[in-house]
Specification:
The chain has 443 residues and is α/β, with parallel strands linked by helices. The chain has 2 domains: 132 residues, Aspartate Aminotransferase, domain 1, CATH 3.90.1150.10; 272 residues, Aspartate Aminotransferase, domain 2 (3-Layer(aba) Sandwich), CATH 3.40.640.10. Helices cover 39% and strands 16% of the residues. The protein is built from 15 helices and 16 strands. The strands form 4 sheets. The protein has a 7-stranded mixed sheet, sandwiched between helices. Strands 1-2-3-15 form a 4-stranded mixed sheet. A hairpin with a 5-residue loop joins strand 8 and strand 9. Helix 4 packs across helix 11 and helix 14 packs across helix 15. The protein is globular and about 60 Å long. The mean pLDDT is 97. The structure holds pyridoxal-5'-phosphate. The site of pyridoxal-5'-phosphate (PLP) has 15 residues, from helix 5.
């Protein structure tokens, strides 16, 4: 079967996510046959450097020998068992190790398979906590402008990205939306901290008026990724924690994209010196191998459900909850973090790649060149509206032609590479970005 066969058969039978399918008539999906390290290969053997970690999940490369070995060993031991009434070593060990990474501040892990489900769990758990605590009227949620928390109906209700929400608005129970601390809003002479303080003031007004009916505020710490890598000052998170404490409202940290070392620390919240009441993880936690998500919560939350009664128990389940293969991949990732001192080696890697990308900061058509840990982003000012509307697609295609997998969000180009790029791969990535941008800006 040729790649072309695979692409056309795919559009006939596979309904691709996040895609107007008719577009595949002119731009068929890229059929990939294998992956190795930071590279994906098509049937002709052409390699593509995976500059976005396969939708932000792949931390340590494709077919990583250590993760492969762990999953293969688990495959021959126990592939799956239900987590109601049963347990197994991989899920216990993963929960213990994640808890330890928070100094046991978040000592209870509840499992699911995808990010949106983790968000739903955190929302349900928060509202149920208040119900169990005799305050059932606390059941509304607050999210930030331009936040993204997933695309199931519950998660869309706390999402403010029009492209994902518009068609489904009438089906949703919408959250209160407060100002985003997106540092790009800084006016002349203003700092990111000033923008954060302003956003906190608007949240305080809402809490002051509504705290009695609010269960939780949900936030993507440090970077609102799906909005186009909107970054904010860590002071915002510290202030958010203080406000939530003051007004007795839960804080849910959605670290699905920013957790697992992506922002420079294992958890993004560490940079604000605080822990949320609920922390959602998914995406990178299994190294991009198997669907896995989880919600970590505090002993206080856990205690509110600790009872014999079914009504007080947290009632939520997914068939593949706590799947042992997925947990074994996650454990292998935690081993790699430790054995390779990943957070520190990433610092060196990030500093080098930042130097290679630095010319973008002074490019006449580039605005807001920014970086946080292993995320780089910049906004491109394309004047002609027609040209602007197709910028992302053109950039994507031009990058592929250069052996690079990149997919801008609107006019925001971003890099979210796996944590394994060597010097030569970093050079290729940076040169590829410069040359793709030059080509994409041609009228
Ligand atoms: C991707 C993402 C989700 C949703 O995760 P899925 O596994 O795609 O359902 C939720 N929140 C954030 C911040 C994300 O980046």
């Amino acid at each position: 079967m040729t790649t072309l066969d695979l692409a056309s058969r795919s559009t006939a039978s596979v309904w691709h996510p996040c895609t107007p399918m008719k577009r595949h008539e002119t731009q068929p999906p890229l059929a990939l046959v294998r992956g190795s390290g930071a590279w994906l290969y098509d049937e002709a053997g052409k390699g593509y450097l995976d500059g976005l970690s396969s939708w932000w999940v792949n931390l340590f490369g494709h077919t990583n020998p250590r993760i492969n070995a762990a999953v293969k060993a688990q495959l021959d031991t126990l592939s799956h068992v239900m987590l109601a009434g049963c347990t197994h070593a991989p899920v216990v060990e993963l929960s213990e190790r994640l808890s330890a990474l928070t100094g046991h501040a978040l000592g209870h892990c509840f499992y699911a398979s995808d990010g949106a489900s983790a968000v739903e769990i955190a929302l349900k758990m928060s509202a149920h906590f208040w119900r169990n605590s005799g305050q059932p009227e606390k059941r509304e949620f607050v999210c930030l402008a331009q936040s993204y928390h997933g695309e199931t109906l519950g998660a869309l209700g706390v999402t403010d990205v029009p492209v994902f929400r518009a068609a489904y608005d009438s089906l949703l129970r919408l959250a209160h939306i407060v100002a985003s601390p997106d540092a790009r809003q800084a006016g002349p002479g203003e700092s990111a901290g000033d923008v954060a303080a302003r956003a906190l003031a608007s949240l305080r007004d809402l809490l002051e008026a509504k705290a009695d009916s609010l269960a939780a505020v949900i936030v993507e710490p440090l970077v609102q990724c799906a909005a186009g890598m909107a970054m904010h000052d860590a002071q915002y998170l510290a202030g958010l924690r203080r406000l939530c404490d003051q007004y007795h409202v839960h804080l849910i940290a959605d670290e699905i994209a920013v957790g697992c070392g992506r922002t420079g620390t294992f958890f993004a919240c560490e940079q604000a010196g605080m822990w949320p009441d609920f922390l959602c993880l998914s995406k990178g936690i299994s190294g991009g191998y198997l669907p896995l998500s989880l919600v970590m919560s505090t002993p206080t939350v856990y205690q509110a459900f600790y009872d014999d009664s079914v009504q007080r128990a947290f009632l939520h389940s997914h068939s593949y909850t706590g799947n042992p293969l997925a947990c074994s991949a996650a454990l292998a990732c935690l081993d790699i973090f430790k054995e390779d001192d990943v957070l520190n080696t990433n610092r060196v890697r990030a500093a080098r790649l930042s130097r290679l990308l630095a010319p973008l900061a002074v490019h006449p058509l580039v605005k807001h060149f920014r970086q946080q840990g292993m995320i780089w982003a910049f906004d491109v000012a394309v004047a002609d509206p027609a040209h602007a509307a197709t910028f992302s697609r053109r950039f994507h295609a031009l990058a592929l032609a250069r052996g690079l997998m990149l997919r801008p969000i609107g006019q925001t180009v971003y890099l979210m590479p796996p944590y394994i790029l060597n010097d030569s791969e970093q050079n290729q990535l940076a040169e590829g970005v410069h040359s793709t941008l030059a080509a994409a800006l041609q009228p």
